[in-house]
Amino acid sequence: MVRCMKLGPVVRASGRALSTAAGRQQRRALAAETADQDQVTRKNFADVQRERKEQAKNSVLISCPSKINEKKFLKHLSRHGEVANHFFFDSHGVHALVEFVNTESIISLLSATKVPDNEDTCVLPFKSRFIKVKSQELDLHHVKCTPQTSVSINQLLKKLSGAKNIVDQAHIILDELQLTEESIRVRYLVSSLVSDIATAYFPEATVHLYGSSVNSFGKMGCDLDLFLNLDSLKDVSGKPASSFVTEYWMRQVSSGRVAQQKVLSVIGECIESFGPGCTEVHKILSARCPLVRFYHQSAGLHCDLTADNEIALRTSELLYIFGNIDSRVRPLVFTLRCWARVHGITSSVSGHWITNFSLTTMILFFLQKRNSPVIPTLDQLKNLAGKNDKRIIEDNDCTFVSDLSKIKPLENTEPLDTLLIEFMEFYGTFDFSKNCIDIRKGVEKNKPDSSPLYIQNPFEQSLNISKNVNKCQLERFVHLVQEGSWTLQKQASQPLEKGKEHWGLASILFPTDSDGLFRSKKRLDANRLGSILDSLKVSNNNRKTTTQKQTKH
Amino acid sequence: MVRCMKLGPVVRASGRALSTAAGRQQRRALAAETADQDQVTRKNFADVQRERKEQAKNSVLISCPSKINEKKFLKHLSRHGEVANHFFFDSHGVHALVEFVNTESIISLLSATKVPDNEDTCVLPFKSRFIKVKSQELDLHHVKCTPQTSVSINQLLKKLSGAKNIVDQAHIILDELQLTEESIRVRYLVSSLVSDIATAYFPEATVHLYGSSVNSFGKMGCDLDLFLNLDSLKDVSGKPASSFVTEYWMRQVSSGRVAQQKVLSVIGECIESFGPGCTEVHKILSARCPLVRFYHQSAGLHCDLTADNEIALRTSELLYIFGNIDSRVRPLVFTLRCWARVHGITSSVSGHWITNFSLTTMILFFLQKRNSPVIPTLDQLKNLAGKNDKRIIEDNDCTFVSDLSKIKPLENTEPLDTLLIEFMEFYGTFDFSKNCIDIRKGVEKNKPDSSPLYIQNPFEQSLNISKNVNKCQLERFVHLVQEGSWTLQKQASQPLEKGKEHWGLASILFPTDSDGLFRSKKRLDANRLGSILDSLKVSNNNRKTTTQKQTKH
């Protein structure tokens, strides 16, 4: 199976995506060798989005028999034009994502595609780029599927124990948990299919991915956050060429919120009634940010579609830039998120826990606060902004440079393990009672209110993104960073014992007495830990709520 | 104001549609002169539908200021291409229906049309061919609007009193109550706008008008019945060119009914949320024939949209053929429907009353039963059918000739007044206790069950279209035809008294003692009658229910 993919957010030195188990191993070896150089991209966020969207437009999702003959399948597809890429994955049955070189191939393929005419059942005749292939000519063996979830925790722990050092371990965590090339492609395709539904009524509307799918910090299995931008519609202008002006007759509503609710209601109804592969559709229109939630069964993705979420998209781009400014940022964030999840600092359900976004912002703030900073402040990024980068959204200044090449690398060269320990030291002694965290200025400020944890929203500056966190959760966090710092320092000072089961990062991935969650046992066996860490992969059961939604970027 | 219209179902000798009051008068004079020759068309049903749909596709609905300068308005529009037709009408504000010669003009006009950008309100940005025109350059006078409802009953009675004879009176009734050219155009445009909504998701779907809007028996203000045909979608075929077959991934449902419900639900949601000019949207999906009911305020039309109603469309064509075989059919049907409505034989609400469709079928049956028949039987029309006329719908043979020129005129030359009296004689002595009415064979048959009135459905032959009628209503009908026959014969035998207020047909358009509805007064004053007859025009308040729906063709 030949894959030759144009890479997006996660570009690797090899220039190839390798998603099989063997590929993973090779990639990791590569990552360790070239650590701190290869794990970032220099592509601008908008370019990545554009390329990925183009790829997705030229792609189809195909439900296949599990023993399909791959060679003949490709030959059949090539009747309609050159196939640029393809891979198989399993989600409630085997599926192929096939990208053609030209859009005409899609038109050709669909024109040769039939409406099912099973005598016994009726179909809802909604045509999309999600099709089924049937064939009598099957192979003996199942087709090889790329994984759509992370490796099991046992495998992860095994890999950690075989690593060279803590830095290597952090890269393993990143490599095993981050979105694969294939997962990214599936996400953009689902977005493109939703876009087809939306643009049927609103041809100028655009559907954007935001949040973890695109901010460079997404884990395998994370939710797909989409938003529908209808604002581009309003750009239609034209000087009146005569004393007559024509305007579309459009339904007027009392507020933008009502407009969003109505549009989402119709789109939700479509997805519910005939959205191919979509189940569990819920219209949550009375939420603060109205949304349609559904599960794309065939892609294995939980999706949230909102309307008008420009600031969230801008925040995603900001995180993307921070994630790609320096190669240490992403392994550091993935490692700390993994650690936080194990200890119940973050959670997939809403509540008083620290969110992933808050935790990431704390890490970024820490990196800005080094004596020699690892990353610039948001204000510095704003100062680098060109004319086209200017963006005011709902009176909030969301301006910052989008051209990554304009951001010069900073001088800090501290190794990853040092940064990890220093992060824990930093927040172990941080004066949360007085200070507020602000990545715009990169300096502590006096808290504007008495929230236990105050992290200023980088764009909506009067908002605290961690308003939900209570005193108890903050105290647990402080206690855990103090303990983590102590454990890691001890690990770092000890010589590496080959064969020792859990050393280095693995030692802080074990819940301790102080976690509250697990008071009864000093140590948990691997199975127990496994079940906890498994929840890192897909948060299918306890899905985040709308409140949390607001803070996902 | 120049109008030059291509005429559809109602083609008049002049080749022009004249819808103003003056026009009506001219047209009626014309009708009287050329009676029995000019009131029928020789265009086939399918051709009329096709032409009308094309017209509608090239048309836009424009909301205008009431004092718009017509000349400048047209000049403005002509920037986008040649205007083929236009007229103004008033329905919750002044509107223009403008037909362009070419579709490109519509595209050009819409590309110059803005999305409203009122700061104070939000709009649902759904673009359609319903637009608004704004202008500072207004005239002193209101623009001239074509009527969208019939004349008042007082005017009708006045016109009847001024007629030459009963035949002339019947033509006046036809002329005053039938759909005008403009009303037909508005109906096709609304259908076309609904089609735009439906084809956004189902590009091969077609929306058809059926029932009174197209069967040649429609009254001004009657409901607009539409159905969405999704079946054409299933025709996509193709021989498998390889051992692989591709099929669209489509949601499967347990029955065609569920599929209809889901499709109508989505379209209903769209119409409700942003259907321009649509109000009072109700999804009546649990009805036997699921439908979406709405009021197109700007067209002044109550609309019912169902899915898959092929037989109803076929029935509409059959009625259209009967209405256009002989010029006496339509004035006879309009006169008798008017009479029946006055006496409460038919009603706009569902119940035990005889429906318009049943009454029309009874009239057709009577015309087939004349010694020398006025119209052929359905079986005779079937025998004239060509290859392309063959139509089996849900196992029902719906075959009949569609080419009107193949139907040779029959020899009966009885005048309209004779037919009117003979109709009443016929049903005054008809043995309803034994016999069933069947326009397929054109002969009485034994009733298959004990329903008081049994009229066999011409296509679904096991069904009785007048199953709803109870004994009491049938007895009232028989009593009223007997009385009507007696009154009319008396009128026919008397010399015409010039200046006498209510003579001829007017004499049977007065409710009598026997009507039950009006026992207390021997005679009603004109105002009272007016209010009753007004209900003939638009049945806005007591709208027909779904049960009745089934029998509207």
From TrEMBL, chains A, B:
CDD domains: NT_PAP_TUTase. The keyword Kinase does not apply. The keyword Iron-sulfur does not apply. Its cofactor is Mg(2+); Mn(2+). Gene3D superfamilies: 1.10.1410.10, Beta Polymerase, domain 2. Residues 45-113 form the RL domain. This is Poly(A) RNA polymerase, mitochondrial. The lineage of its organism: Eukaryota, Metazoa, Chordata, Craniata, Vertebrata.
